[in-house]
Automatic annotation (TrEMBL):
Similarity annotation: Belongs to the universal ribosomal protein uL22 family.
An individual GO BP term: cytoplasmic translation
Keyword vocabulary terms for this entry: Ribonucleoprotein, Ribosomal protein
Species this protein is from: Neolecta irregularis (strain DAH-3)
Protein known as: 60S ribosomal protein L17-A
Matches recorded under InterPro entries: Ribosomal_uL22, Ribosomal_uL22_euk/arc, Ribosomal_uL22_sf
Gene Ontology CC annotation, any one: cytosolic large ribosomal subunit
Transmembrane feature ranges: none
Single Gene Ontology MF annotation: structural constituent of ribosome
Pfam families reported in the protein's UniProt record: Ribosomal_L22
């Protein structure tokens, strides 16, 4: 059995997916997960596709030192936002995995909401330089 970070109240009505050792910045991953929390699955996929095309931005709320300002952040009440394309691509793959798991477990994928996305841990053991 795979260990997940989130403990679910009703596992029979939930679909899960996880990834390990993703080569993304954990600060970007935290902000992307925070941005899609509470969204519908299809709405989150459309949002992340728009982020990849630089049509919508991810608001940076915690790790926002040195982040430039953009007008696309007004949607979220902040001016500091970015377009973390690589992280968005990893999260899109993960959400598509959740969608296929929901189909396998006979859940309705259009009614799934993102409940508890968690960022991957930082890889402190990787060499720098």
């Amino acid at each position: 059995m795979v260990r997940y970070a989130a403990q679910l109240e009703n596992p029979s009505k939930s679909a899960l997916a996880r990834s390990e050792y993703t080569r993304t910045h954990f600060k970007n991953s935290r902000e992307v997960c925070h941005a899609i929390k509470g969204m519908n699955l299809h709405k989150a996929l459309a949002y992340l596709e728009a982020v990849k095309e630089h049509k919508r931005a991810i608001p940076f709320t915690r790790f926002h030192g040195g982040i430039g300002r953009t007008a696309q952040g007004k949607e979220f009440g902040t001016s500091q936002a970015r377009w973390p394309v690589k992280t968005a691509q990893f999260v899109i793959q993960l959400l598509k995995n959740v969608e296929s798991n929901a189909d396998d477990w006979t859940l309705i994928a259009s009614s799934l909401n993102i409940f508890k996305p968690t960022k991957p841990p930082s890889n402190d053991d990787e060499p720098i330089g």
